[in-house]
Amino acid sequence: MGLFHHFIFWHKPGHSAQVVNHRPGFGQFLCPAFCGFQIIKRVCCILALLSFQQQLFSQELEFKKDKKGVLLLEDDKPRYFYQEKTKSLDGKYARANYVHPLYSNNGEIITEDFPEDHLHHHGIFWSWHQLYAEGKRVGDPWLSEDISWQAEVTETTIKGKSAILKAEIYWYGAADKKPVLKENLELVYERFNPETYALTFKIKLTALKGGVSIGGSEDPKGYGGFSPRLKLPEDVIFESTNGAVIPQNLPVQAGPWMNLKGSFDNLGKITGIVIMGEPEELPNYQGWILRSANSMQNMAFPGRGPIAIKKGENLRFRNQILVHQHLSIEEIEEYYMRFREGG
User: Fold this and answer.
1) Residue 159 Cα distances to 77, 169, 195, 295, 338, angstroms
2) Which 8-state DSSP code applies to residue 230?
3) Are 289 and 216 in contact (CB under 8 A)?
């Protein structure tokens, strides 16, 4: 190169690096060392930033079991509790096999159990008014009348940023010594970032007797199925794929997910809770039962007319609760596609 030297000057993002030819002059022989120092300095800053980000996303998941059920902890903070054993209120409205409490990212409880307006609502649950077997009505699982459940957690597993709980549940009529249904439940918890997590419900109901059928409420609403009972704030609003949704008395037709936005955490911050499902996979799907106060939200199926589950065959469905901060409709759509791909 003779008397000329090439120096590459460090540049800001979005600007091109410059290669400049210079004749050596006073102080110019220091440039290579100076540039090397700057490069090392920047590399150290980047590594420090990555380390800081990794700490923000660090996650330790742990299951803790007690006599009542199983608690999932995330970095020593409660995330949800699975009610394995039967729980009642003064001996009434007894139910097992549901999730409560469910917690927001800020640690606030966002579900309700035995609310005064509907004592038979229990956190995140799934049930129907009508249950038949062998030609007779077995009971009313929705109201917890003439029905009982025996649940057992069979597996808890931590895989990276996911926590998986599996359980077997048997549904008994009040006069039955043998169960009517066997349920296989899988709960999958996933942390996506500090502001977003998902809890996916995979449910399989297998008929253990002949003539088994299930049906929703025996009125035009036809509610039944996956039903989150959330602690609704006064400022709650609903939106789906095409924008704002107004709750009605009867089922509302909307997209396959429903985003509820409001001050769920009582800290003045707007939290979003998305309920996801697969409507096209549900038999006789009715639509969304939505309430802005004092009730549950429901992806209603099969309506007031019962559907049969043949002995030895099963009914499967999946739902997801996505808790987030400030996700747009487009971003929720991306999470929904991820949910569907995970089926």
Assistant:
1) 18, 24, 20, 35, 18
2) B
3) no
Neighbouring CB atoms inside 10 A of 251's CB total: 21
Q: Is residue 46 helix, strand or coil?
A: helix
Strand 92-95, strand 87-89: pairing: antiparallel
**Torsional class of 75: left (φ above 0), alpha (ψ -120 to 50), beta (otherwise):** left
Dist. CA 252–CA 110, nearest whole Å: 23
| Residue 120 φ then ψ, to 5° | -90, 5
Q: What is the mean pLDDT of residues 242-255?
A: 98
Q: Would you give the end-to-end CA distance of the chain in angstroms?
A: 63
pLDDT digits (tens, 9 = 90+) for 130-156: 999 998 999 999 999 999 999 999 999
Question: CA nearest 254: which of 262, 263, 245?
Answer: 245
pLDDT digits (tens, 9 = 90+) for 106-116: 999 999 999 99
Q: Is the pLDDT of residue 268 over 80?
A: no
Q: Which SS3 state, helix, strand or coil, does residue 50 take?
A: helix
User: Domains, the chain, ranges and CATH?
Assistant: 5-55 (no CATH), 59-341 (2.70.98)
Helix, strand, or coil here: 153? Answer: strand
Helix, strand, or coil (residue 291): coil
Max Cα-Cα span within the chain: 101
Kindly report, residue by residue over 169-201, the tens digit of the pLDDT: 999 998 888 999 999 999 999 999 999 999 999
Alpha-carbon distance 330 to 332, whole Å?
5
